Amino acid sequence: MSQSLARTPCTVVTGFLGAGKTTLIRHLLENAGGKRLAVIVNEFGDVGVDAEILRGCGIEACDESSIVELANGCLCCTVADDFVPALDGLLSLDPPPDHILIETSGLALPKPLVQAFHWPAIRGRVTVDGVVAVVDGAALAEGRVAHDLEALAAQRAADPAMEHEDPVEEVFEDQIACADLIVLTKSDLLDKAGDALARARLGKALARPVGIVTSSEGRIDPAVMLGLGIGTERDIENRRTHHDEEADHDHDDFDTVVLPLPAAADAASLASRVTEALSVPDVLRAKGFAAVSGKPMRLLLQGVGSRVTHGFDRAWRDGEAREGQIVVIGLKGFDRGAVEAALAG
Description:
Layout: E1 8-15, H1 21-30, E2 37-42, H2 49-55, E3 67-70, H3 79-91, E4 99-103, H4 110-115, E5 126-136, H5 137-141, H6 150-158, H7 167-177, E6 181-185, H8 192-205, E7 211-214, H9 222-225, E8 254-261, H10 267-278, E9 283-290, E10 297-304, E11 307-315, E12 324-331, H11 336-344
Parallel strand pairs: 1-4, 1-5, 2-3, 2-4, 5-6, 6-7
Antiparallel strand pairs: 8-12, 9-10, 9-12, 10-11
Helix pairs in contact: 1-2, 10-11
């Protein structure tokens, strides 16, 4: 096949809230080795925090025109309106990308998205190089798919109607069911026994052999993730998920709110307030950025469970309003007022 007719490989990066997808992709961008990478970021909510994290990397091989943010909901639900035009835009770049990374929302089901690669408008132009599921290794070692799910367990115990319903578990299981590779993140928080526990739980949930690699702070050799050459769209119907019999799906089990994040006197105090917000029952994830008094750099914060990481990612640009914002994701009905009070301090 000639280069002009070759299909552009795409890697679908899926994973639950807070597993480390964006950190992993940023590492790939920073270590692309001259390969031109493009990114489609799918988020819920009006503030593209993940896209902002990636745009802050300043990598010549992936400038801002190569990062497309889709914030209108699940990619697989908006193929014609959002996904196909996003691909068209990236493929029309001069020069075009060598490889496209697609970061799904933490709530997304990857199978419908992979099935979309059969659409006539794109099937001859792109292929799924592989589906990579990013999994929080530290949480999995503790028997959970994400940190701080005690609220969900309490809700299930108090409500008999939830006896056979666990949306978080189903999302997690559907994500790994479609995976060609699993990246077990936060390996620095795992000892040998914890690593074995996490792998054992994955083994029980997987219906077929899938490679598992570990990563800390997003560090991974790009050659491990890119260039798998699987063409997952050709096999996706054989990967059974909880939602195979559904003609459609939604995300009504979750709520997302976008809140202003006032400037802080210091990074530690702001991280403490985000930690307090994460302790509100049914809150799963928070991510955002803010200004710190006297600092020329923007502070990036990401939190899940009781863990909040923060660091300065880039300088505020000339003329840019130093206004912070944070996205908070949780189970439907979580107390927004309590979250706002915690962030206000």
